[in-house]
Design goal:
The protein is of the alpha/beta class. The chain has ten helices and nine strands. The chain has a single domain, classed as HAD superfamily/HAD-like (Rossmann fold), CATH 3.40.50. A five-stranded parallel beta sheet has the order 7-6-3-8-9, sandwiched between helices. It has a two-stranded antiparallel ribbon with strand order 1-2.
């Protein structure tokens, strides 16, 4: 049993972290709604991580934007199938999008958090790299987990809605044109900005996440959910992760 799967899909610790993130997110949003912010948390098109600029709020209604997989839904069926060590296959994932919805459940804390956001008058929007061709199955999966409504083109945006592939910024900008986005949640850095996808090494990506100009956003507009199972976080050799100055061995 892969340790990451044990942790994410089976442990009380992962459930606690997820609930903690959702509790923090809803508390933050409630505070921001009271304060009536002048800008949201979506980076504008000309922004950089060193010099971030954010879409203005004006008089737009409030929204919160979330990734789907391992952010609001846990894909237990697909990962059960993969637990034997089967390598990832895009065709297999697309088949799961269509037929695996009955095995998904809401991420711990997600339903309570989403319900709380809607009570505050905040529109909940899903921005996923699931395929637009499978929109109906994705909508059903989200709504079966009690997280809906999810309306394609309004509160559900998918890979294939534009010509940018798995990059999400174009969809975020489209959402920010209509809404004041005061919180975002995801399990990958690309769920917050495509700028995080540019660094080529684990060390560079870690430095990007720690950049002083954006570091204050984690837990204050940008909220990360745990995912040690797949994605951009799982990269790097032993030498990448433990450079020379990080090594220790006991004396003989």
């Amino acid at each position: 049993m892969p340790a990451g799967m044990q942790y994410l899909y089976g442990s009380g610790e992962a459930a606690a972290i997820s609930i903690q993130a959702w509790n923090a997110l809803t508390g933050y949003v409630e505070e921001r709604v009271r304060q009536r912010p002048v800008s949201g948390v979506v980076l504008e098109e000309d922004a950089t991580l060193a010099a971030p600029r954010f879409a203005s709020c004006d008089r737009k209604p409030y929204a919160a934007v979330f990734d789907v997989d391992e952010t609001v839904l846990l894909n237990r069926g697909f990962e059960y199938d993969a637990a034997s060590g089967r390598p990832y296959e895009d065709a297999r994932w697309r088949a799961y999008e269509i037929t695996g919805g009955t095995t998904t459940v809401a991420v711990p804390g997600a339903k309570a958090g989403i319900d709380a956001l809607r009570r505050l008058g905040v529109t909940v929007i899903f921005n996923s790299n699931r395929a637009a061709a499978n929109v109906e199955a994705t909508r059903v999966a989200i709504e079966r987990a009690g997280l809906g409504p999810a309306v394609h083109g309004e509160t559900l945006f998918l890979k294939g809605d534009d010509n940018t592939g798995s990059l999400k910024d174009a969809r975020r900008w489209r959402i920010a044109d209509r809404y004041c986005v005061i919180a975002m949640g995801g399990d990958q850095l690309g769920d917050f900005s495509d700028l995080f996808n540019a660094p080529a090494t684990p060390a560079a990506r870690r430095s990007a996440a720690e950049a002083p100009a954006v570091a204050g956003l984690w837990g204050r507009g940008w909220f990360v959910l745990p995912n040690p199972v797949y994605g951009t976080a799982l990269k790097g050799t032993l030498d990448d992760i433990f450079p020379a100055d990080a090594r220790w061995a006991p004396e003989p």
